Amino acid sequence: MSTHYPQAVRIVEVGARDGLQNELSVTTQDKVALIHALAQAGIKNIEAGAFVSPKWVPQMADSLEVIKALKLPKDVEISALTPNLKGAELALDAGVQEFAIFTAASEAFTQKNINCTIAESIARFEPVMTLAKANDIRVRGYVSCVVGCPYQGQVEPEQVLAVCKQLLALGCYEISLGDTIGVGTPNKVRALLELLLQHIPADKLAVHFHDTYGQAIANIHTALSMGIATIDSAVAGLGGCPYAKGASGNVATEDVIYLLEGLGISTGIDLERLAEAGWTICAALNKQPVSKVSLALRSQCSHK
């Protein structure tokens, strides 16, 4: 089975955005320091902020300030969430290399979250795509609730496929499949990917698992075995799940790197430096990392 694993995996680090927007606020300096530390650990793709209404997501209100303060090597790419044209224009002004847009595979979730249908949510992205194309900016599409939805329950793979096709037709170079409430299990993930891979090349798909029920690493292993080579994760497991109080949110980047190293898959990321970046931001948040690997590394250090 190992012959099916990708030789190298691209990590999209979402801790500075998807992670921190679900945590207590930290200072702009803390965010800048986190992104610099992630880059120094070898991470090349970092989602650094979100150009959304500060009324709805106050933790991301300083995204422009954060991104403008960054001094990163040329091979590190910064992306930001740009749900509308105004957000995309701000992101462009900040100098990001990639826009990210989002919808869901569940009509109920889309209605509750952004008060419109899936089709309407996708139509809203057209001006963002036009701006991106004119400025040679890549656009990544996120699809939430690819396995289950907090309002409608199970989500059928056919529905996910339909939404992915629409985003690709719009011009997204890659679709990130989000298990937003973390209910996925390896068999469900396999069934979903078996259908999607009949219609979409593996290099256009990424996986974004939340660890609410502790299944994220098992689900990532399944995706890797099916040829998926891009994984979204958050340093220290930042970000709670808004639908399950006290539950963990994003899978921890440290845990993903440990899995990949164990499988002999190249990432170019220094695990110890990554764990240090996680400890520093967690100190600012006054919390422990959720990452099992990070906690194990810290325990080893204290015993030396």
TrEMBL record:
Which InterPro entries has this protein been placed in? Answer: Aldolase_TIM, HMGL, PYR_CT
**Name of one Pfam family that matches:** HMGL-like
Q: For the Pyruvate carboxyltransferase domain, which residue ranges apply?
A: 9-275
Provide any one GO MF term from the record: lyase activity
Q: Which residues form a coiled coil?
A: none
What's in the keyword line of the UniProt record? Lyase, Metal-binding
Gene3D superfamilies, per the entry: Aldolase class I
Entry-linked PROSITE patterns:
PYR_CT
Which family is this protein grouped under? Belongs to the HMG-CoA lyase family.
Question: What name goes with this protein?
Answer: Hydroxymethylglutaryl-CoA lyase
